[in-house]
Amino acid sequence: ICDADNGSLLWKLFCVAFLSCSEGRNREIEGFVLVQNYIMSLDAVLLAEDTEGTLSICDADNGSRLTQALRGAAGNVPPRGVALLGSDYVVAAYKEKPVLHVWSWTKHSQPALRIPLPGKASAVSCSPCGTFCVCGIEASFYVWEVASGRLLAVVSHHFQPISVLCFTDDGSHLISGGRDGHVHVWSFSDVLSKSHRGEMPEPVYHWVHHQQPVTDIYCGVSGRRARVFTSSKDGTCCVYELASGHHLCKLIFESSLSAIALDPVELFLFGAEEKEHLIRKVNFYKTVSLSLLDEDFLRERPENIPQRALLKAQDILFSFCMWT
Description:
It contains 2 helices and 24 strands. The chain has 324 residues and is mainly beta. The chain is globular and about 50 Å long.
């Protein structure tokens, strides 16, 4: 785990990348969720390690493991198949079985519930209030009410299986990304109301700026006024304005991205590259001198360029990006 400001190594428990651990570089961490454990009054990180197929909870302050691996998830958790249900439960899907497992924070030996699904889930997300659970199954997403278990909606709009689902922080919108490279923004109230009337809802926005499968979606704060960040296996990260639906800019990385994250005030973006298990840091507000854009600079090898990735967006019509 590295310091976001200077890149120095903070912990030796994990290597300096989202995708590998110091215990063995072949153990890939494909997903992580920052949670607040109100019982113990500390921040914790939920890690999903793909090769070993385990879910572990670690102390965010010193890196120590708070619990052993959550049992029943060995080798079967998809990259975006883990979600938090309120502040009491962890929900995880299976790669090989149409089953959804639910664990309680207070009991990790066995899942509290095993819920059968109509198909294998490739993505899972829960509303911030903990009232709804959404699963991506093939090219559709299914919406359940947690308290009653009722199926409220089934929406199909992607051409290929859904790879990631994400709610806005106020729960007003649901964002879905698929292996077809498309990203759809849905009004969640519209999804529920039209499905109740037997109608098929339409997305508020339909973004098609990726050429390969969407791997991750990050939605910022402020609900409807948030910015949305999407990553893809084509090595690009797109930034959108949720209020208007405008595509603000696109960042180009050296290899495909498996995960993205931002600091709380969205000054820096961190992208995990799959090729060399590296994290790229992007400063959104650092001005770049145009005098650097000469032929010698463009011919220089990426590792010799001091700045990893820089971008400055003038407005929604004119933007440019520099890549390493």
